[in-house]
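Sequence in, structure out. Go.
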Amino acid sequence: MRSDDNINVSCLNGKLQVGDMVLSIPACDYPNMVGVVIEIHPLGSPEHDSGNPEDDVLVNFEGDYSFQRIKEMEKHFSVLYGIEKTFEELPIDSVIMSPTTLLRITGIGEEVLQGILAFEKNAQLFGTTLVKGHKQADKTFQQNRWDGAVQRAVHIGWKELDLLLSKLLSGILGRQITAHAFGKEYNNWATSLISSPLKKWEMELLFQVLRAGDYEREANWYEIGPISELSQGLSRELASCILPFSAEDSLPDDDGVWFLSGI
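Output:
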């Protein structure tokens, strides 16, 4: 197997290469975990034999987790595998990950690192604010500390939201998708897919992944394709994949969109 330090791939917030520290997003089988990239197998290379439609990033998620975090992980993987699992039994030393499920956290401070290793909620909070860059993430995290408090309102700028939605859609549908979030009248917003319209089967797959209800299905259903726009509700559900809470409302402003949890 090849491990080339010169290979890099695009993740949710930049470029990844071997040796980078990463944080996984909530919406994956290995959620909110800290690890180190040990190998990268580009799509189409001889080493890429996983069958995944994206580059393979091999991550070692072994780390100095707190006792509380280990218990959280054991509970998650016991449910995932349908059998009781201990931390020592978890296959986390060489996990094949999609680049669209990873955030690059190389260079974060030691205090912040220890915080996200301590509690899952801290990892969720830090990962969400990281879309605005390390300085903003550090500031938000330091304000909340790691006392279990979770931010219930997150603002994402328009450009960052475009990147986030594009990455998430590309990961779900297995092809490059370019999404553009835009504001509409009466405090509404939506996602344009004019440059990357969806086929009906892709829309059905998106409905299933996001567990869309009848209302969102009706609001986004087209008798004939292609599908060139996602409603505000479905766009909010998509963005919620990387938020530390389930966003029940969203409100656009001049700079981006506020995602709000329930009260």
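Check: Residues 134-151 have pLDDT under 50 and may be disordered. The chain has two domains: 8-143, 154-260.
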